């Protein structure tokens, strides 16, 4: 049996609410009074769980809005859907290959999302007292909507045929066509119906240079609210994505456990080698303390994520292009995991996050996890 550990100390009412929330996700909870000598005097209530349940419990506590039970919803569960934005290209189809296989393994469903931009609204809006439409423009707009629906129908039919032939696993999927800028449409859909995962096909690095800050995937990553799996165009995917060597960027805090738990739940059915690296952001964080923290993190991961093999690599400087190339040539990573924090608009523009930088530097699939 796993030993009991304390995850929080709350008032009695808050402790009861947290216990209900954790137990609804399958976690056993024990409540103990902090003041054991005088239990009648309530100084607080300890919320204790089994140590093996710590990653999931931390994720629930840190993202309580995703796990809060809506009284109006009888099911009381969040959406277990994998969202796949598509543009009907071959790279979108490759993203679907990965998404459908993941959905089959995770017992999830798929939602295909396509967004289009109305050129008449986007290009002809003027700052006047009234907005007028011409009959020709209205007809053209209706035709554009019909074309978008037809493209989605054809893409969905292609997926159905792949399921019939056995190329895709049998997974329930839905689709929608919306009007709007692609990155805004994806973020808005994910806010309303938070998905388990967003799978996005991306261009190769030779084409990403031309996109600069206009990449749809980069804009979604910068939101920092959703778990995103990128599938670069050059990635060789025949049936599924099964990483064997993973590069995990650590922040040396409890968010690393949350991110590792997401990786394990998504790709934990087959063993792989995980290399944990940390580049100190300030000189006051010495190499010695960094190495000790990485060692403790690796030991915890070995105990709780038994299908994986862990190795820690402390770095003395930030991961630039040369350092990344050195790591890649030594370990041959086939997936990168980045715990990602949300940044404000100013920071995104002048100091983009690590996930944003890596997206434009490599053609390796990347799992970006909000923390």
Q: How would you describe what is shown here?
A:
Helix 2 crosses helix 10 (255-267) and helix 7 runs parallel beside helix 9. Strand 9 (245-249), helix 10 and strand 10 form a beta-alpha-beta unit. The chain is of the alpha/beta class and 371 residues long. The chain is globular, with a radius of gyration of 23 Å. It has a 10-stranded mixed β-sheet with strand order 6-5-4-7-8-13-12-9-10-11, sandwiched between helices. A 3-stranded antiparallel β-sheet has the order 1-3-2, covered by helices on one side. The protein has 14 helices and 13 strands.
Tell me the span between the first and last alpha carbons.
29 Å
Q: How many helix segments?
A: 14
Mean of all residue-level pLDDT scores: 79
Percentage of residues in DSSP E strands: 15-25%
**What overall form do the CA principal axes indicate?**
globular
Topology order in helix (H) and strand (E) letters? EHEEHHEHEHHEHEHHEEHEHEHEHHE
Q: Which residues form runs of ≥5 with pLDDT under 50?
A: 69-78, 121-133, 208-214
Largest β-sheet summary: 10 strands, mixed
Helix/strand class: alpha/beta
Task: Record the strand order, biggest sheet.
Answer: 6-5-4-7-8-13-12-9-10-11
Helix amount: 40-55%
- Report the count of strand segments: 13
Rg, Cα atoms, Å: 23 Å
């Amino acid at each position: 049996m796993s030993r009991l550990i304390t995850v929080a100390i709350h008032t009695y009412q808050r402790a009861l609410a947290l216990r209900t929330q954790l137990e609804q996700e399958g976690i056993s909870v024990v409540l103990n009074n902090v003041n054991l000598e005088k239990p009648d005097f309530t100084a607080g209530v300890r919320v204790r769980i089994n140590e093996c349940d710590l990653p999931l419990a931390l994720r629930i506590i840190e993202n309580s809005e995703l796990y809060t039970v809506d009284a109006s919803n009888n099911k009381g569960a969040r959406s277990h859907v994998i969202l796949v934005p598509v543009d009907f290209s071959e790279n979108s189809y490759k993203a679907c290959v990965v998404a459908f296989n993941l959905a089959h393994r995770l017992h999830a469903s798929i939602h295909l999302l396509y967004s289009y931009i109305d050129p008449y609204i986007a290009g002809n809006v003027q700052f006047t007292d009234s907005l007028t439409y011409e009959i020709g423009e209205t007809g053209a707009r209706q035709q554009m909507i019909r074309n978008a629906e037809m493209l989605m129908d054809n893409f969905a039919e292609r997926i159905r045929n792949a399921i019939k032939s056995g190329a895709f696993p049998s997974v329930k999927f839905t689709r929608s066509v919306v009007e709007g800028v692609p990155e805004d449409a994806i973020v808005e859909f994910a806010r309303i119906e938070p998905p388990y995962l967003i799978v996005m096909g991306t261009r190769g690095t030779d084409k990403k240079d031309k996109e600069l800050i206009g990449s749809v995937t980069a804009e979604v990553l910068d939101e920092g609210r959703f778990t995103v799996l990128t599938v670069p165009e050059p990635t060789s995917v025949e049936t599924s994505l099964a990483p064997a060597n993973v590069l995990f960027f650590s922040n040396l805090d409890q968010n690393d456990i949350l991110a590792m738990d997401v990786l394990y739940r998504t790709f934990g059915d087959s063993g792989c080698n995980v290399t944990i690296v940390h580049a100190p952001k300030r000189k006051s964080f010495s190499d010695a303390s960094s190495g000790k923290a990485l060692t403790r993190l690796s030991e915890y991961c070995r105990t709780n994520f038994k299908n994986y093999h862990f190795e820690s690599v402390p770095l003395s400087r930030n991961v630039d292009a040369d350092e990344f190339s050195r790591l890649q040539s030594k370990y041959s990573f086939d997936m990168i995991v980045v715990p990602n924090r949300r940044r404000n608009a100013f920071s995104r523009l002048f100091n983009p996050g690590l996930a944003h930088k890596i997206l434009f530097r490599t053609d390796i699939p990347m799992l970006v996890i909000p923390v």
